[in-house]
Design goal:
Pfam families: Asparaginase_II
Order of helices and strands: EEEEHHHHHHHEEHHHHEEEHHEEE
Distance between the termini: 17 Å
Oligomer: single chain
Protein name: L-asparaginase II
Number of helices: 13
Helix content: 25-40%
Length: 335
Amino acid sequence: MDQILLEEYRGETLECVHRGHICGVSYTGEVKYVVGDTNAVTFLRSAGKPFQAIPVLRHGADVHFGLTGKETAIMMGSHRAEPFHVDALESMLRKIGVAEDGLVCHPTYPLSVYATEDLLRNQAPKRSIYHNCSGKHLGILALCKMMGYPLETYFEPQHPAQLEILETLSYLSECVINQIELGTDGCGFPVFAIPLRNLAIAFLKLACPELIEDEAIRTAVEKMVGIMNEHYEMVAGSDRICSALLRDTNIVAKGGAKGVYCFGLKKEKLAFALKVLDGSEDEWPLIVASILEQIHYDNTKTIQSMYELAPIEIKNDNKKVIGRNTTVFALQIHS
C-alpha cells in the first residue's frame, strides 16, 4: 500500500499530499529499504533512456559516426533544448546522415522556458529536435543505420532495435520479458512497466557494472555512466535534478514523466527507485534529499543541491514565505 511521501503546507494548514512508493536494493539485489509497495508496477518513461541507449554503445554506433561525449550523453537525456543541446543535436543529424523529419517525435518548442521565449521572439517554428526525447531517437537511428535496420519503422515494438532494448532491460532488471508490460510513450517509442524492485535492480547494475556478467553490455554500461557523469548538463539541463545529481560522480540517476525517479550509488552499492503517484516531479529533489540523509550519505554538497532546486520554504510571487514542504516518510529496513 502506498504511503505519504511529502506534505505541502500553506501557513499551518495542510494543502496538498503526495503519496507513493520507494524501494532501495542492496548489492545483492535484495530489498533493503521500503516505503509503500516495492512490487508496485510503474512505467519507466524517460527513466528508461539509459537502457534504450545501451544497444547503441554496445554495437559502437557512437564511435562509427564519430559522436562526441556530449552528443552521446544527450542520447540518455531528457534535454530542455537549450542552445548547447540544439548544437549537439544538429551535429548528430549531420554526422548520422538522417533528416529531421525522419524522427517520429512531434515538432514542438523546448521545455526550457527561456529557450522557447527566444524562439518566439524570433518567430522561429517548432522542431522535432526540440523534443526532449530527440537525442534518444537519434541514437537509435544511428544504430539502425549502422546495422542496416529499417529506418522508417525504428519506433515499432517489433523492430530489431526495439527488441534488443527490451531484452537489455529484461536482463539488467531481472524481470522476465513476458512480465514486462508495454505501452507507448509520449515521443512514440515503446515504454515499459516493471515492479519498482526490478527498476532499482537495473539502476544498481548501472552503478555497479561488475554485477553484469555479459561483457559487451558491461563495457557499454561503464562507458555510458562515465559519459553521463562527465557531461551531466546534456542529460537534463540547467537547474534540473538529473544534471545536479550526475555532477556527483558517485551517482547515476535518471527520472521519467509521471513521478518516477531512480538513482544508484556506486560507493555504497545501493540503488533506489521511487514513484510519486500523482505524477508530480516537483517533489523529487526533496524526496531524494531525504533518502540520502536517512542513509547518512556523506556528500552534503549533493544533498544541499537538492534543497537549492526545491527549497523547504514555499514562497509566493513576492518572495514572501507562505508555507513549507515537509517530507514525512521514513525508510523502513526490510527484514
